[in-house]
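S1.2 Input.
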Amino acid sequence: MKRRLIDSTDIAVSSLGLGTVKFGRNQQVKYPTGFELPSDEEILALLDLAQEMGINFIDTAPAYGVSEERLGKLLGSRRDEWVIMSKAGEDFVDGASHFDFSPCAINESVERTLLRLQTDRVESLLLHSDGNDLDILDHSGAIEALQKLKEQGLIRSYGISTKTVAGGLRAIELGLDIVMVTYNPWHTDEEPVLDSALESGTSIFLKKALGSGWFGAKDSPEDPISEAFRFVFSHPATTSAIVGTINPKHLRENCEALSTIEKD
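S1.3 Output.
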């Protein structure tokens, strides 16, 4: 599996990142079917398979329930084998999301993340937007807080997981290392952000590259996974696509589909 550098760093991430929301949260999630949280043994087997298939990149967040805590316990001495990305600004408590992008909240969130992950740094930290991208970027003080955390070595790169085109473009203007956007064959509204990132060198991480399992509903192609990967990686700004799964069969199929495309 190909690896690409995160902007302004020497950190290389695999084309696919393993999303871990399903490791720690099954409430208020937008997937086609419900699911039970996996056991520790199932998570360890999935991590082993991910490594076997060439994945070195894990995506987690405080909003993903107990995902960070479980990863911290299960990675143990293998932590340095992984590039870890987490987030700040959103917490999921008592079945609801709570947002705070003040510098104090960002600092406290990163401190908790490091304790939960049992590590001294994360390779990437994104703001977990509530949709008010421009206000977060321009008025919350969160970006300044992230810059200081990067200078302290607690995070190696930083950015924002956006929900608007304007937010993605503004993040690039501000010189953030990373912008995470929704992009797939059925949602192309944020393509201008990828175009701008290509010019600036900003790293682009994709969420919902497979449409969160919906695959464009009735208009789905015969092989939607390959179709989606071929589409999103045809844009040269794409650094990595985060795909969450707790199904080993799906993980292997995703990696094999991408491998075929990367060989073309």
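S1.4 Remarks. The first strand starts at residue 3 and ends at 5.
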